[in-house]
Design a protein that fits this description.
With about 220 residues, the chain is α/β, with parallel strands linked by helices. It has one domain: 3-Layer(aba) Sandwich (Rossmann fold), CATH 3.40.50.150. Helix 2 packs antiparallel against helix 6.
């Protein structure tokens, strides 16, 4: 998909986005292509589907929530910056903290943010359990099983909610999640949003957003 085609798609899916926001989102592929040739942060075979598999997949969270300007979001295992960086572009007054244990990936995030002048992102090489501060939401994309992930971040989530969704975890994941959710059902409420309800592309057929919050 060309940037011009993605721009048209974004205009249709997210009519509230500004022209500068769409332009930044469309510039991402060229920047990641440049850095991917130096530092492999995204599967090379996946670059052809970059806009759908990475940018639009990240923006699916924006279909269920628009973060308030005064909120703080932690992206755990961000890799090259997903889902946090596209969400930071469209939630430009929200503070995003993107962490990953691999330093070269965080270097790419910083360089892309500098190039696009995305100023509401703090990118850091770190692990969730060592990250300071508390956040309204923890976001992530298929890092590990819920039973392992939740204990890493549960104490990082603020108690007082100010969004229509309760403070908690917003997790992008595909496939059958029944066993994973059963393993944590005594401690967490969950809601599931099927991405095929928002996007027509085949890639989203089995993809979901899971919202978790403590009971």
């Amino acid at each position: 998909m060309k940037p011009s085609e993605f721009s048209i798609l974004l205009n249709g899916l997210y009519p509230d986005l500004t022209t500068p926001q769409i332009e930044k989102l469309c510039q991402l592929k060229e920047l990641y292509q440049f850095w991917n040739d130096k530092i492999n942060v995204i599967s090379r075979k996946d670059m052809d589907n970059f806009f759908i598999h990475h940018v639009l997949h990240s923006l699916s969270i924006y279909k269920i929530i628009s973060f308030r300007p005064d909120s703080f979001i932690l992206d755990v295992g961000t890799g090259g910056g997903f889902p946090g960086l596209p969400l930071a572009i469209v939630n430009k007054d929200t503070s995003f903290h993107l962490i990953d244990s691999i330093g070269k990936k965080i270097k790419v995030v910083k360089e892309v943010c500098n190039e696009l002048k995305v100023e509401n992102v703090l990118a850091e090489q770190n692990r969730a359990e060592n990250t300071k501060g508390t956040f309204d939401f923890v976001i992530s994309r298929a890092v590990t099983r819920f039973s392992k992930f939740c204990p890493w971040v549960v104490d990082k989530i603020k108690e007082d909610s100010k969004h229509h969704l309760k403070n908690g975890i917003i997790y992008l994941k595909g496939g059958d999640l029944k066993d994973e959710l059963n393993a944590i059902k005594q401690k967490y409420h969950h809601s599931i949003y099927h991405l095929k309800d928002y996007f027509e592309h085949d890639f989203f057929e089995t993809k979901q957003i899971v919202h978790l919050h403590k009971k």
